[in-house]
Amino acid sequence: MSWTLLGSADADSDQERATRLLYEEYAQPLFGYVLQFLGGDRQRAEDVVQETLLRCWRHQQLAVSVPQQNLRPWLFKVARRIVIDEYRSRQARPKEVNGSGWLDEALSDSDDVDQLVSSLLLAEAFEKLSPVHREVLYETYFTGRSTREVSAVLGIPQGTVKSRLYHAVRKLRSALGVSEPTASVLGTERETVGSR
């Protein structure tokens, strides 16, 4: 980070020397102090430091011939107030939005229409299944019964329930256009089940 002092390099008045010394002595510590307030936003911190030093230049009597007073407390206080004032002014203004933000939010929010369309598609795919597959899916997923409970309710062996459930889910995926899990995923599942 470099601080440049505007003005002619040839003219070396007491006021310019005092301003240059002000920058050299206080700019870096003030920048670090303000940077902490702004959560690491370097650009805003530089703007605050510049505004603080500009106010000092306007309001303080800077002269090299007079021993320098300690301006550090005054500068840090002014910088802190500038940060607070900027924060308050942003809070008072309405939230700024860009032109495409509302579209992203509208597309990402699910609403009743999405849920209705999903349920209609699911109902249509469910109707394409055979009655035995629909029955097993209904008893397992919609009533929340275990395969053992479904076996008892339907009066069929538990292995048959598992087989019908497996084939029903595959047919339902196919009807909905959802792809099957890849072989690597199936292999991982088999290893996990086998290791229990």
Written account of the structure:
This protein is mainly α and 196 residues long. The chain has helices at 14-37, 42-59, 72-92, 101-108, 112-127, 131-142, 147-154, 158-176, 183-194. The radius of gyration is 36 Å and the shape is rod-shaped. The protein starts with 13 loop residues before the first helix and ends with a helix.
Could you give the topology of this structure?
Blueprint: H1 14-37, H2 42-59, H3 72-92, H4 101-108, H5 112-127, H6 131-142, H7 147-154, H8 158-176, H9 183-194
The number of distinct helices, counting runs of at least 4 residues, comes to 9
User: What's the multimeric state?
Assistant: single chain
Percent of residues in beta strands?
Answer: under 5%
Helix and strand content put the structural class at mainly alpha
**CATH architecture level-2 label of the largest domain:** Orthogonal Bundle
The overall pLDDT average reads 77
- Coarse morphology: rod-shaped
C-alpha termini separation? 60 Å
State the helical fraction.
over 70%
Query: SSE string, helix = H, strand = E?
Result: HHHHHHHHH
Tally the beta strands. Answer: 0
* Low-pLDDT segments, ≥5 res: 188-196
Write down the CATH topology of the largest domain.
Rna Polymerase Sigma Factor, Chain: A
The main β sheet shows up as: none
CATH class of the largest domain: Mainly Alpha
Rg over C-alpha atoms, rounded to the nearest angstrom: 36 Å
Number of domain modules? 2
